[in-house]
Design goal:
Strand content: 35-45%
Distance between the termini: 41 Å
Helix content: 10-25%
Number of helices: 3
Shape: elongated
Radius of gyration: 18 Å
CATH topology: Jelly Rolls
Strand order of the largest sheet: 3-4-11-6-8-9
Number of domains: 1
CATH class: Mainly Beta
CATH architecture: Sandwich
Amino acid sequence: MARSPSANANGSFWRPRASPSRGAGGSTWAPPVYPSRQTDGGVWISRDIDLRPRPRGFHLVTDEVLGALPELRELRVGLLHLLLQHTSAGLTLNENASPDVRRDLETWVNAAAPESFAWTHTLEGADDMPAHVKSSLMGATLTLPVRDGAPVLGTWQGVTLCEHRDHGGPRRVTATAWGE
């Protein structure tokens, strides 16, 4: 069977998912909740987590992410993969104690990708293209080991949302965990 260039390997077409409604009253759409699933290969957990809107800056979200994953406590050993589904924000694992570190990171990325640069992509505002560059620098994924029901983090490490837009809105993280 001949496939068109936009069809995927099994012949079906990729279609973007509908965007949630974000009216003045907030979102009326809720992300799907997938129950944990026991298989011969262990437990699989998949969950979309909507993080509350935050201003531009670096924000600790460890408690918000882990609070949405109570099934993680079932894992003796495994991995937790986090994907931030946005191109103008990022995720990083960094200092969770001193807010000065988060302020310094924000200062550095603003100097590395300034709004005053002669960007070509400016349709969404002066902060948009620098946000894409910053997101590429920070990355959108983290993979963390899980041991005894919790991610294995260093004493001063926390999951940090890097919000690069002035008004980025809610951000969605897809969490996938597997283990036994």
